[in-house]
């Protein structure tokens, strides 16, 4: 299997987890509606991130059908995040249908299939109506969306004064510095797609930084000397900007500065934070000479030491770490542990057959050996165990499709979905 195929398989494995997270988030939102609770913004953000991550990975592998649908779904979810839409049972039902269609597109992409042009058309129409129209990606075989495969240079001159008058709309102004590393292009990425995705978050202006571009005789084909400075006016939080660079964060250098009129915004470089510029100095940033970033960060080193404890407390709880292991490796480990358990039993029998006096120390050591061997065996066997939850999530989709055909309102509920069984038991035939 080639390296690219390995990455592709890893992407689809991640899609399974993201789809599960998507279903969990939608179910959590429905539970909140049932109980009359306020909309859980964290659940909405989690649902949005799941769809956004699937779209980003699909774009890297050229899964155009999946990208177009995910983009439409993502737009509706973004309206929910920005409170342009108020969550209701009808909207949630459309989102559930969209999640089902997204799962079907992921499955088709994994198997190399292309769905019919009208697949999911009804769901897309409902998503468009919720968002009040907007840009509608074409179906396969239709006219290509204007601007999708063409690139026109964006304005180089930027006047920040109109943007700074928009504080009443709760908009924030960000300055983004972007420099691509050679491996960014080697992995099939294009900065234009990243900039286009940023433009969907608000009003974007792009400037090209030519300061590092050498003379023609010294230009290297494998080195991108061009850099970009982007200015974005958006209602989104800074985290939404970082999500755009999720898949390329190790392949480029990105700096994000938030510019506000009051207070002291921050500059984020990796895990470091420093005080940023104020609004009255915007002209210096966009037109005047640049200040070395290292010097600026150093001038605020004392501020950072005093804020370190606050930043640590504000950091979100890290997700539970997991690692993917090939089943062949797990099977081999299970076989070795099985042999260990057998050898432990043989050793006990040999000691008994040899009439070796069973002292307290020997008996204690054998018992401890047996206990450890059994514990290792159970631990290794649990690696193959999987929750039956994904299986029943697929059944929920079948129930929704049947409800549509019958014209009934159906809610699929499960009990004991945390039960774990061996991976070999998880077969689709169980749905029959």
3D structure, described in words:
The protein is of the alpha+beta class and 432 residues long. It has 15 helices and eight strands. It has helices spanning 3-34, 41-60, 64-81, 89-111, 121-130, 161-164, 182-186, 191-199, 238-244, 282-286, 293-299, 301-314, 327-353, 360-384, 389-406; strands spanning 172-180, 202-209, 227-234, 252-259, 266-269, 272-275, 385-387, 420-422. Strands 2-3-1-4-5-6 form a six-stranded antiparallel beta sheet. Strands 7-8 form a two-stranded antiparallel ribbon. The chain starts with a helix and ends in a 10-residue tail after the last strand.
What topology emerges from the helices and strands here?
Elements (H helix, E strand, L loop, with lengths): L2 H32 L6 H20 L3 H18 L7 H23 L9 H10 L30 H4 L7 E9 L1 H5 L4 H9 L2 E8 L17 E8 L3 H7 L7 E8 L6 E4 L2 E4 L6 H5 L6 H7 L1 H14 L12 H27 L6 H25 E3 L1 H18 L13 E3 L10
Antiparallel strand pairs: 1-3, 1-4, 2-3, 4-5, 5-6, 7-8
Helix pairs in contact: 1-2, 1-4, 2-3, 3-4, 3-5, 4-5, 13-14
How much is the radius of gyration in Å? Answer: 28 Å
How many beta strands in the DSSP annotation?
Answer: 8
Which strand order do you get reading across the main beta sheet? 2-3-1-4-5-6
What is the helix tally?
15
Give start-end ranges of low-pLDDT stretches. Answer: 134-152, 160-168, 262-319
End-to-end distance: 33 Å
Strand content: 5-15%
Q: How confident overall, as mean pLDDT?
A: 73
Q: What is the architecture of the largest domain at the second tier of CATH? A: 2-Layer Sandwich
**Major sheet, described briefly?**
6 strands, antiparallel
Along the chain, the helix and strand elements come as HHHHHHEHHEEHEEEHHHHHEHE
Organism: Loktanella salsilacus
GO biological process, one term: chemotaxis
Protein name: Signal transducing histidine kinase, homodimeric domain
Modified residues (Phosphohistidine): 52
């Amino acid at each position: 299997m080639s390296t690219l195929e390995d990455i592709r398989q890893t992407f689809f494995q991640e899609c399974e987890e993201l789809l599960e997270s998507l279903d969990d988030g939608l179910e959590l939102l429905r539970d909140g509606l049932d109980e009359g609770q306020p909309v859980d913004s964290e659940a909405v953000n989690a649902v949005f991130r799941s769809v956004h991550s699937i779209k980003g990975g699909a774009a890297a592998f050229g899964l155009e059908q999946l990208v177009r649908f995910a983009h439409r779904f993502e737009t509706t979810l973004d309206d929910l995040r920005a409170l342009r839409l108020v969550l209701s049972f009808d909207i949630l039902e459309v989102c559930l249908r969209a999640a089902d269609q997204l799962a079907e597109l992921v499955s088709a992409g994994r198997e190399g299939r292309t769905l019919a042009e009208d697949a999911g058309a009804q769901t897309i129409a409902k998503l468009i109506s919720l968002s009040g129209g907007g840009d509608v990606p074409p179906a396969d075989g239709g006219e290509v969306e204007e601007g999708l495969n063409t690139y026109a240079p964006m304005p180089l001159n930027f006047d920040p004064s109109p943007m700074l008058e928009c504080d009443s709309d709760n908009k924030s102004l960000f300055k983004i510095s972007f420099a691509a590393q050679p491996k960014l292009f080697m992995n099939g990425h294009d900065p234009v797609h990243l900039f286009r995705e940023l433009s969907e978050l608000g009003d974007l202006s792009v400037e090209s930084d030519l300061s590092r571009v050498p003379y023609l005789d010294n230009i290297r084909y494998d080195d991108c000397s061009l850099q970009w400075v982007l200015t974005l006016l958006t209602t989104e939080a800074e985290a939404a900007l970082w999500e755009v660079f999720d898949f390329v964060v190790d392949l480029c250098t990105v700096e994000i500065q938030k510019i506000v009129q009051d207070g002291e915004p921050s500059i984020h470089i990796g895990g470091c934070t420093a005080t940023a510029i104020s609004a009255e100095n915007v002209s210096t940033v966009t037109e005047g000479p640049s200040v070395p970033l290292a010097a600026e960060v150093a001038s605020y080193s004392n501020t950072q030491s005093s804020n370190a404890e606050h930043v640590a407390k504000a950091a979100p709880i890290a997700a539970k770490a997991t690692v993917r292991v090939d089943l062949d490796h797990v099977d081999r480990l299970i076989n070795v542990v099985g042999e260990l358990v057998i050898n432990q039993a043989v050793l006990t029998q040999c000691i008994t057959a040899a009439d070796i006096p069973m002292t307290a120390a020997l008996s204690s050591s054998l018992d401890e050996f047996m206990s450890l061997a059994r514990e290792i065996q159970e631990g290794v066997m649990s690696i193959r165990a999987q929750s039956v939850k994904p299986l029943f999530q697929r059944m929920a989709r079948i129930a929704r499709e049947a409800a549509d055909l019958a014209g009934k309102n159906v809610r699929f509920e499960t009990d004991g979905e945390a039960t774990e069984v061996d991976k070999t038991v998880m077969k689709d035939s169980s749905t029959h």
